[in-house]
Amino acid sequence: MELRLEHVGHIYNPGTTYERRALDDVCMTIGNGEFIGLIGHTGSGKSTLVQHLNGLLLPSEGKIYADGEDISAEGYPLRKLRFRVGLVFQYPEYQLFESDVLKDISFGPKNQGLNPEEAIQRAREAMRSVGLDESYETRSPFELSGGQKRRAAIAGILAMNPEILVLDEPTAGMDPGGRTEILQLLKKLQEERGITILLVSHSMEDVADYTDRIIVMEEGKILWDEKPSKIFSRIKELEKISLAAPQVSYVMAALHESGWDVDPSVTTIDQAADEIEAQVRKRQAAAGHAAAQVE
Amino acid sequence: MLREITLGQYYPGTSILHRLDPRVKLTGTLVFIVSLFAFSSVSSYLAATAALIVMIVISEVPPGFMLRGLRTIFLLMLITALFNMFLTPGDPIVKVWKLQITREGVEMAIHMAFRLSYLIIGSSIMTLTTTPNQLTDGLETGLHWMNRIHVPVHEIAMMMSIALRFIPILMEETNRIMSAQISRGADFESGGPIRKAKSLIPLLIPLFVSAFRRANDLALAMEARGYHGGDGRTKMKPLIYKKRDRVAYLIIAGYAIVMFLMWKYGKIKLPFLP
Question: Per the domain annotation, does B274 fall within a domain?
């Protein structure tokens, strides 16, 4: 499915002393199996924006079209939209409530109107895809570890078979091992099932390695919507809005400035290592050549 | 809807009312409420109205803010007034079928409407100009003598301030969990009362779990800082009466005397009733 946002604005508590503009003229289209990163520092409007994507909030200005249909239109089935655009909130483990993990994960499919067996079937599939084996099915969600709880919560959304999966800082408060596992899981979902992933984060390292496209937000506006390599070549501008490029970008930019012929737009550590190795080899070869000539 | 209740909401400011000792404000509010219910002549209402208007003006809180609190209890006031009108025995003025409106009933209804709205406005003035912390501080210091009759004043005050502090946090949490469950297709609105009650389970369980988690964290944090109840505990900002507080007490006493005298000597019947 395709979500198209046209000049979307959102104002909280309009007409009161607490009036606050959270989104301003946001235009974007998502939904063809991409892995998208949405970054911006706290208060830039990221969370408000993602709540528009499944109709939890409706735009105060502008329109949102889901497969061409205006979601603010009267009688639009917002509940159906919520099954197609899965939204995983920050700290999703705090929304677990059932007596066992399997029941909790099947809450979404049941709400979709599937019969109990189908719902359980979906829940089992979702559990497998987040890496929780059968032994967890009958355990209480409250006795799981933090990382397992989070996987169970993500599975709860996955079980609804969404076409677009939006995650608000899914790795917040997790250790590096847990972060990588969650991010790799998302990458796998995108590649194998063609789900569009929108990952909200303020960690550049997270988004750099996995995304095809990055949207940067600042004060409720979309600042850039480009490929990662292009975004991270804007080191100075990113710092101005208190964001930082991945550390690799800094290393590469510094090397480039001091005369090494490396590509400064490289974004992942692996690519950077290859670049540097190639350059070192080249210099060694040149040095060897020069030495040979002197002899 | 809950967001509209001004009772218990603080409006930041630096007016003289904001700076008064909370004990003075508590006493003043208490005296005001007693005066409303004890004396009921027209002149005493006029005096109470004058006192309220003066307080609203010097509190520097927008009057609309105070009146907003009234909106939420409007229904309660309406029901009270209706019950009073129809159920007070006395001289009937209007008779419809088996129901009758009595003169005493109308008088009572008017009294109650005034009393309730003044009660709300009066206590709103206090809560709008006093932070919850100051309020519990004032209660704790003001009721300290009850320790002697084994009332755990400090603990009660502590519980009150923690409870007050947690209201906005739990409200936010409720909103968040609700949004999260709606995203999973939960439906909190349709269906009969039983289905509706059942649909609250996915909201209430995570809410309770999180309340207990927060309570645990808070208890741990308090113990880690050596909290062990009220014995021998000193305050960073002890409440000390200043000159303005003494003047305020005098004004409150003056108000009480005026109200008493009006009640004793200035009885005027409600002019617009036969």
Answer: no
Least confident of A8-17, A55-64, B14-23, B258-267: B258-267
**pLDDT tens-digit readout, B238-272:** 888 989 999 999 999 999 988 888 877 765 554 54
Decide if B202 and A107 are in contact by the 8 Å CB cutoff. Answer: yes
Is the residue at B229 inside a domain? no
Using a CB-CB cut-off of 8 Å, the residues of chain B touching A111 are: 184-187
Task: Determine whether the interchain pair B183/A107 forms a contact, defined as Cβ–Cβ distance below 8 Å.
Answer: no
- The answer to the question of residue B138 being in a domain is no
In this prediction, residues A187-197 reach a mean pLDDT of 91
- Of B14, B119, B16, B6, the C-alpha closest to B65 is B6
Q: Indicate if the pLDDT at residue B2 is higher than 60.
A: no
Cβ distance of A51 and B179 shorter than 8 Å: yes
Residues B9 and B124 in one domain: yes
**ipTM of this predicted complex?**
0.83
| Contacts by residues A76-83 (CB-CB < 8 Å, ≥ 24 positions apart) | A78/A54, A79/B185, A79/B187, A81/A54, A81/A55, A82/A54, A82/A55, A82/A56, A82/B182, A82/B183, A82/B184, A82/B185, A83/A108, A83/A111, A83/A112, A83/A160, A83/A161, A83/A162, A83/B185
Q: Are residues B246 and B126 in the same domain?
A: yes
**Is B180 an 8 Å CB contact of chain A?**
yes
The model's pTM is 0.73
Residues of B in contact with A126 (CB under 8 A): none
Nearest to B183 among A54, A94, A97 (CB): A54
Residues 180-239 of A with CB under 8 A from B: none
Spatial separation of the C-alpha atoms in residues A153 and A165, rounded to whole Å: 13
Q: Please report, rounded to a whole number, the percentage of residues in chain A having pLDDT higher than 90.
A: 47
CB contact under 8 A, B184 and A160: yes
Domain residue ranges in chain A: 3-231, 246-295
Mean of the pLDDT values across residues B141-163? 87
Q: Are residues B154 and B27 in the same domain?
A: no
Q: How many domains does chain B have?
A: 2
Nearest CB among B177, B182, B205 relative to A56 is that of B182
User: Which CATH architecture best describes the domain A3-231?
Assistant: 3-Layer(aba) Sandwich (3.40)
